[in-house]
Amino acid sequence: MSRFITATDRYIFRLTIVPMIGVFVLAASLLMLEKMLRLFEFVSMEGGPVGVVFEMLLNLIPEYAGLAIPLGLMLGVLFAFRKLALSSELDVMRAVGLSYTRLLRVPYLITFALMALNFAIVGFIQPQARFAYEEMEYELRSGALGASIKVGEFNTIEDRMALRIEGSEDDGRELRGIFARLADDNGQVLAITAREGRFLANREDRNTIILRLVDGTIVHDPVSDTPRVLSFSQHDLPIDLPALQAFRERGEDEREYVLPELLEIGWSPQSSDIERAGSLANLNYRMVEVLMMIMLPLLAVALAIPPKRSTSALGVFLSIVIVVAYHKVNQYGAEVAAIGQLDPFLALWGPFAVLVAMIAWMYYQVAFVPGGQAIGFLEAFYAKIGRAISRIFGRNRLKGVVPESEFGEMEHEIEALDEVLQEARGAA
User: Fold this and answer.
1) At 359, is the pLDDT very low, low, confident or very high (cuts 50, 70, 90)?
2) Rounded to 5 degrees, what angle do the CA atoms 36, 42, 44 make?
3) Contact 213, 194 (CB under 8 A)
């Protein structure tokens, strides 16, 4: 084992694993943060418990992991080789006969492990989590998750009862300033006010709860009789809970099917053309998202090596753009193929072939062409822009924006110009 995994491999593993985990956590957190704010607003509007937000976010983790895992893998490898390149350790490794392909042994072992994990997530875990999220959202809207009575507002129950509560204490167990108005099918109306009360469970009937009122008044207004007023020290008011419809079965969306179910629908002669196109589009989408990861270490190496005497981070920016853009292209291709406007194989595997060819060319330029640069023309263009901006705004204002190497080149040019001017003055 020590011959297969050498000290160099262990060193590259340490350089890769730390930024990879950090990027994965950061990307997943940023993707979930915006959704969390929307969920808090949604749950508060529906009057549901706050704990539901975190349960719904747990079901969103597999959805965001499908993008965060490839992004973390690529940036982990990129930062590792970028550090080796900037510290000149990569030149030493290359000088002793270690090729880029040999140095990628450990990153590819990590890649295969993450590919298996991502395959399990997008193929089996993500569909179940998506359905669980939709079910919780439905139950929250219907009140099955314990939606509370909104304080200070009139709440309608079953279109027969209006309830208003001035305040609550002890997490809603103690209620104050209660007003209730009930109407039956015969037109009789009960208006009830009470100083305080609480909700109690009814063991005999799960579809009914008891509102126990203390120190209040009942005004009974029959249809053809004189209204009556009653005072009470304690009164139990039964409230019928609204009937809850069962949530739909899993499978309304192709994204809720696991991989064996997608294969069964896609190749079944009983399936309609729309069902077959949707299932095949989603199946191919998941496959290309997983297989794309096998090219990420090569892309990371191609973008990690900056030009000599340069610390440009342009490759880091381009790597994120490429991964996110390819993910969005796949999503668009899957949607177009699902409605039958394009063949699923062409819509998903076409961009995959283009990406593979592009990454293979970029890696060849870095690994096998002496002095080759995958994005050399972009680096040169970026350097020209940096020098132009530095001439306009000056060095002091651009520290941290323009690479220090560009300032060095500019200083040499200024010094040479000063020497020429001084010689000209002496001759004069």
Assistant:
1) very high
2) 105
3) yes
pTM equals: 0.74
pLDDT digits (tens, 9 = 90+) for 313-322: 889 999 999 9
CA separation for the pair 212, 175 (Å, rounded): 10
Q: In what order do the strands lie in the sheet with 228-240?
A: 154-157, 161-169, 174-183, 189-201, 208-221, 228-240
State how far the Cα of 377 lies from the Cα of 385, in Å rounded to an integer. Answer: 12
- Greatest mean pLDDT among 135-149, 191-205, 359-373 lies in 359-373
Question: Are the beta carbons of 96 and 268 closer than 8 angstroms?
Answer: no
For CA atoms 163, 167, 172, 174, the dihedral sign is: negative
Q: Which two tokens stand for residue 101?
A: 């392909």
The HSE-up count of residue 274 (CA atoms within 13 Å, CB side) is: 3
Q: 227 is written with which tokens?
A: 């209204």
When mean pLDDT is compared over 136-145, 162-171, 346-355, the highest value belongs to 346-355
364 within 8 A of 98, measured Cβ to Cβ: no
Dihedral, CA of residue 310, residue 312, residue 316 and residue 321, to nearest 10: -130
pLDDT of the residue at 149: 67
DSSP bridge partners of 218: 192, 230
The token pair that represents 9 in the structure block: 């491999």
Instruction: Provide the residue type at 185 as one letter.
Output: D
Report whether pLDDT(411) > 50: no
Distance CA 154, CA 165 (A): 8
Query: Which of 166-170, 209-213, 228-232 has the weakest average pLDDT?
Result: 166-170
Does residue 409 register a pLDDT over 50? no
Find residue 191's DSSP bridge partners. 181, 219
Contacts of 52 (CB under 8 A, 6+ apart): 43, 136, 140, 145
pLDDT(121) > 90: yes
d(CA 82, CA 78): 6
